[in-house]
Structure formats: structure tokens, C-alpha cells
Amino acid sequence: DRPGLGYSERPKDEAATFAVQARLIRGALTQLGIEKPILVGQSRGGEIALKYALDYPDDIASVVLLGSSPYPNETPDSVFDTIEGIVTTPVLGDFVLHTIYVPIARQVMSPFLEEYIEYFAPLDEVPPSYYDTSLELALRPTMVKADAQEEKVVSESLEKLCTRFDEISVPVVIVTGDLDTYAMEQAPRLDDDLPNSEIVIVEGAHHFLW
Predict the structure, then answer these.
(1) What is the pLDDT of residues 186-195, one digit of tens each?
(2) What distance in Å separates the CA atoms of residue 184 and residue 182, rounded to the nearest whole number?
(3) What is the mean pLDDT of residues 44-49?
(4) With a threshold of 0.90, does the pTM exceed it?
(5) Quick count: other Cβ atoms within 10 Å of Cβ 187?
(6) Where residue 94 falls among pLDDT bands split at 50, 70, 90?
(7) Per-residue DSSP letters for the chain?
(8) Which of 46, 72, 76, 93 could pair with 65 in a Cys bridge, judged by C-beta atoms 3.0 to 4.6 Å apart?
(9) How far apart are CA 190 and CA 193, in angstroms?
(10) What gap in Å lies between CA 99 and CA 158, rounded to an integer?
(11) CB 210 within 8 A of CB 41
């Protein structure tokens, strides 16, 4: 899990930038005695794996990206920006998160969750408990706040990251489903910017292509 998401703790005294997250992963791998790993990163995890390759080039064998889109989104989400601003506001944010946010968000998000099945293509169904479990995990106040805090540093992190792709020397495999429009659009550009990369297209697959 990325810091603060799932059941992983978030750093208390620093923002969870890509550099910080890469450092935490390296620390975990060091404790486990794992040398020269192949890092597999899905979606935003791919961006963190690329940052790891930049910061610790001698400590990694290669990177595999699954549905990753590491270039900044040029169309900001104004609704999410507003929510992000509220939940990260001291005192007010915690009050909103622990009172009105969860019940309102549950009502708003529930109808949309079942549309997410398209992201699992070519699968056309998921376990019956998937939607309820996903909703309960996603609406925990600690996770909502961690996600919002991360979004505040992502844009700047991406802008810095994508200017240095030509410095990544390890092999990078860019894997994307052909139905994952955003990742498919970015894959050729990423392949051009990376000095040692290849693209693998998975036919009939979407964002959750594993």
C-alpha cells in the first residue's frame, strides 16, 4: 500500500512525495534483505517505481509499469480540488471527515462503483463483496485525508519526474491494456523519453490489467 492508504501508516513529519515513498520502499527492501529487485508498479505505483529508479539506480534491476500514466493531467478536477482543500484544512477538515463526509460520499459513490467493472476487462464480474469492501476502505477518514494530502504534492512531483526520464538507465517495460485510454495515450511518449524501454499491449484489458 502507498503510505496512508490500505493499512500502511503515513509519515507524520513530511509530505509523502514520490521521493519519500521511494525511500520508504527502499528501507523495507533493505530490511527484508532483497537486492536488485524488479519493481512492479501499477497506476501511480509506476510513477513511484520510476522515481526509485532515478534515486537508487544501483539498487534496482528493472521496472515494470502496469497501466501507469506518469505525465501530469492537463485537465484539473475542480470538484476533487475543492474536496481536497476542505479535508486537508486543519480542524475543519477532521470535523467534516468524521461527521458529514462519509454518509454523503457513500450515497454519491455507491451508484458509480458498479460502473468500475469496465476497469477489470476482460472480466465481466467481481466477487459479490468487492463493492461493499472497496467502499468501506475508501471512505475511512484516515484514507480520505491521506489521499487528499498526496494529491496536493502529486502535480509538482510529476512535473519534476517527467523531465528526468532520460536519466533512467535500467530496463523499463511499459505494460498497458488497449482499453486503458489514458495509459495508452501516454505509452508512446514514455517509450520515447526512456532510454531503455519497450511497450507491451494487453488486448482486451483495461486499467486493472493484472
Answers:
(1) 999 999 999 9
(2) 5
(3) 94
(4) no
(5) 22
(6) confident
(7) --TTSTTPPPPSSS---HHHHHHHHHHHHHHHT--S-EEEEETHHHHHHHHHHHH-GGG-SEEEEES---SPPSS--HHHHHHHHHHTSTTHHHHHIIIIIHHHHHHHHHHHHGGGGGGGTT-----TTHHHHHHHHHT-HHHHHHHHHHHHHHHHHHHHHTTSGGG--S-EEEEEETT-HHHHHHHHHHHHHSSSEEEEEETT--SS--
(8) 46
(9) 5
(10) 33
(11) no
Cell numbers given for 199: 511497450
> How many residues does the structure list for the chain?
210
d(CA 40, CA 44): 11
Bridge partners for 39 per DSSP:
63
Q: Strand order of the sheet with strand 172-177?
A: 38-42, 62-66, 172-177, 197-202
- HSE, CB side, 13 Å, CA atoms: give it for residue 151: 20
Of 192, 194, 190, 197, residue with least CA distance to 172: 197
C-alpha span between 68 and 159 (Å, rounded)? 15
Mean pLDDT of the chain: 87
- Structure-block grid coordinates of residue 144: 480520505
Residue in 187, 177, 174 with CA at minimum distance from that of residue 208: 177
Maximal CA-CA distance, the chain: 50
β-pair type (197-202, 172-177): parallel
